[in-house]
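ok so I'm stuck.
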Amino acid sequence: MTQTFQFSSMSDSEIEKILAENKIGLSVEEAKKIETILGRPVTLTEAIVFGIQCSEHCAYRSTKKYLKTFPTVAPNVILGPVEDSGVVEIANVNGERYGLIMAHESHNHPSQIVPFEGAATGIGGIVRDVACMGGKVIATLDPLRFGDIKKNNSRRIAEGVVSGIAGYGNPIGIPNLGGDVYFDEQYNDNCLVNVAAYGLVKESEIIHSYVPEEAAKVGYDIIIVGKPTDNSGMGGAAFASIELDEKDKEANKGAVQQPNPFLKRHLLVSTYDLFRILKEKGYLNKVSFKDHGAGGNVCSTVEQVAKRGFGADIDLGKIHTGMQGLHPSVIACSETQERFAWMCHPDVTDLILDHYNKKWDLPSVAENARASKVGKVREGNFTIWFNGEKECDALAVDITEGIQYDRAIKAQIKNLSEPELEEKSDYTADLIELLGSENIASRRPIYEKYDKQVRGDTIIESGEADAGVLAPLLGEDVPEEYKKIGVALTADGNARYGKIDPYYQSLNATVEAMRNIAAVGARPIAITDCLNYGNPEKPEQMWEFVEGVRGIVDACKGIPLKEYPEFPLPVTSGNVSLYNQGKGGAIPPSAIISCAGKIDNYEKAVTMHLKGEGNSLFLLGERKNELGGSEYYRIRGELGANVPKPNLEEAKKQIYAVIDAIDSGFILAAHDISEGGLAATVCEMALGGRAEGSLGCEISLDGVCGEAGAGGAGGAGAASGAKVLKNYQKLFSETGGFVVEVAHGKEEEFAKMCDCVLLGKVTSTPKIVVRNAGDTVVDLPLSEAKEAWWGGLRKKL
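replied:
not stuck anymore, here's the structure
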């Protein structure tokens, strides 16, 4: 007998008890509202379904109106953020557009509770999001945030997360091309595991995440493919939409899914083969396809029909399961991994079933894995049946959008100030300390665990440049010139800036992501975002989210597409993660941006390591007193107030100039200025990537902040009376910009292209020497720099 609840006749305390006992992600008022929507008592399965599908994680119920302000339309956008992934053009081959599939997700709460499994299934989910668009997955990225590295628990979580990403991503054969990692005490109780994935698809071969218009009239079949449904991950979406509480840690472990990368690899390969067959038979317009993410079987089916206003009949008894006696709500909503849902014309049904069950023999790959026909698309309601009884009967659109909020916002007023630091005559020791910081030191201890070359089309891998580069058309049947197209990928977001100003945190993240793409010679073509914030029910934390969105919008408008300057840089996909809060309070506002770029010939792409003695180093972007949120301040126990505030017009000119100069062959190496400032940037160019530590440099700080009378090729926009900064501000300010190495003899031509300052020369002496007004302020042998930078993170993990 189906269990029902008449919430309208119960006291609030009675409703609270029912919700808690059944782990239903609804408030008392929401439970009452669902009864009003349905016009009758609510079944247990319906309450659970609505609790998941109307959660922040699935329905964006507090954020949707703000997300609509993102620029999403441009000539290069094939598919905006309306499905599981966005698609942006990277090539037009005789009228056939090739698209880069872009997706971004978070698995924060699961990774805090069970780091290995949480991170692994995060990779699994984002890979499915890309694959279900009809393309092949070609790369992943992993921006990560952990707590204080001195704490055992933070190190344990970091080790588990990195092992989970490697343990899943490597076996499925998808290269990890980058990411970043930060450690900060405000992530002690709530780490961030954000993952981005990219794929390749022809525009004509895109498979949509919603059914064709004829689906209800024809009666499309519904097919569930993959691992048998069990109770793992039950309530994961609702779990992702609450604050973490340490006392519930053990109970919450059940909300984390269990990964099976070897089954996933088989599913991917078999599904790619099915894409080919559907294309050959002309069936691509007779199907829709979606991954099983948050909400399991319900999510993957209801969202395919809701966008058309259709319903469905689903028989839970026909869904293959891995456990006996599962409650119907568990079969409907558990987040068992390695599953997809097809909806198809009846003429295609047997082809799909036989493809997985016979040709690719899923049942022999994993116990009871298979493809099962479980229902039909129809007009009217979305109905779930079990043993002949209705467990759920509602309009699909009510399930997906029945609860929406317009949250109150309240601006935070912070009384912050700049510290007064004593000026020194020598900053060598300070620079060594900075290079050894866990937030500056080489990330090799992390990325060395990832497979970066598995597809054979990686051009620049993690650690070699500010962005990874691959050649996705290298193996395609296209003319040679298109095979040369490179795609650059990066992810960025300094959250310490968010402690000062959420607007400038997200704006800086977006601009820095664009700079990273430009630093390899690629043009930014689109971004995705993962918006990690606190509790939207608290007006001050909701305001932080709103400000974060505003920063991204302004950055995209301020630095538009280089090829289509009348169009802002488009946002093609994204994710919102709220309730990132533990006993220590909310995390800092953390917008993490993944940017994709295109370079017409990947052979022109540059890395960051120094190339040759006698070449010149130039600075783009004058230094300012902007150390607020900087790493230099952090290791001195300070926060500051002067967060970097990019001039978007100047940032645009710098980005475009670097792209053009790399294309012209003037720039041999490039690195953007961010964490650690100018001093850390030049050190990383001497030590990072393929650098052997044999080339050093001598540079001058004269002119770097635009002071009057400063020398330098091309000037720096200097004006009479410009403020002269202290040496530590020149060295360690995180005002954005670039340091570039220009080929000897090309300096004059390069200087005509942009506002820049001649910093100095690359030398054969293995040391970093920095002078200001003739005085040496840094004299650092690369052997000492290397020890600090290469070992800084490794020794602490």
